[in-house]
Design brief:
The protein contains nine helices and no strands. The longest helix has 41 residues.
Length: 208
């Protein structure tokens, strides 16, 4: 028992260090989430270059978080860190979908595979908004292309069959995505039918 107070003192010092790093990680996580949200808003406005700028800033936040938590890797897999990483994956994958380029890998983004998978599913869900914008602009074929990407992502994610503890709740995320895909499919189907009717009426009026 002679070393009791010494050990308690050392433990308190280490916990204080961990606490300070946790608080800093929370701040970086909030900044990362905010920056990714700005990037997604820019994408929906069609401002892809502005989205690029925001994502570059987000990547710097991820690097700062990783460097900060390197001495405490247990914090890297805390929920608030993984949630922020999912936001980066969502924004980065959505930009790739809109541009028709290859998806960024989790290694490129500096995040864990589970965060990337969930972020990819969220990016596919965001595709619905873009598809609806295309429908309003009478760009039905482009909307169908977005729907095809959403469907392909859902099918691919369905093959990742691991417990939720490993995938960070991917199954629930996919269930939500499946509902979004089906709603989008219904909207696009209705738009296609309406377009065909409109074209048929136009053709009939031309022949009359």
């Amino acid at each position: 028992m002679e070393n009791l107070h010494e050990l308690i003192h050392d433990a308190r010092l280490r916990l204080e260090t961990t606490y300070q790093i946790r608080e800093s990680a929370l701040a970086h996580g909030r900044a990362l989430t905010r920056t990714c949200a700005n990037a997604i808003r820019a994408m929906h406005r069609g401002e892809l270059d502005a989205a690029d700028t925001s994502l570059a800033a987000a990547s710097l936040e991820v690097a700062r978080m990783s460097e900060l938590m390197q001495p405490h890797p247990e914090l890297l897999y805390a929920g608030y860190v993984q949630d922020a990483h999912k936001e980066l994956a969502e924004a980065s994958c959505l930009l790739a979908l809109l541009r028709g380029t290859d998806l960024p890998s989790w290694d490129t983004l500096g995040i864990a595979p589970a965060a990337w998978l969930n972020g990819l599913a969220e990016a596919a869900s965001e595709g619905r908004r873009h598809a609806l914008d295309l429908l309003r602009a009478d760009r039905v074929e482009d909307a169908e292309r977005i729907l095809g990407q959403m469907d392909e992502i859902l099918s691919a994610l369905a093959t990742v069959d691991f417990p939720d503890a490993v995938t960070d709740g991917l199954r629930r995320t996919c269930d939500a995505l499946r509902a979004v895909v089906e709603r989008t499919r219904g909207d696009i189907t209705l738009a296609v039918v309406q377009l065909r009717h409109r074209n048929a009426i136009t053709a009939a009026n031309t022949q009359a």
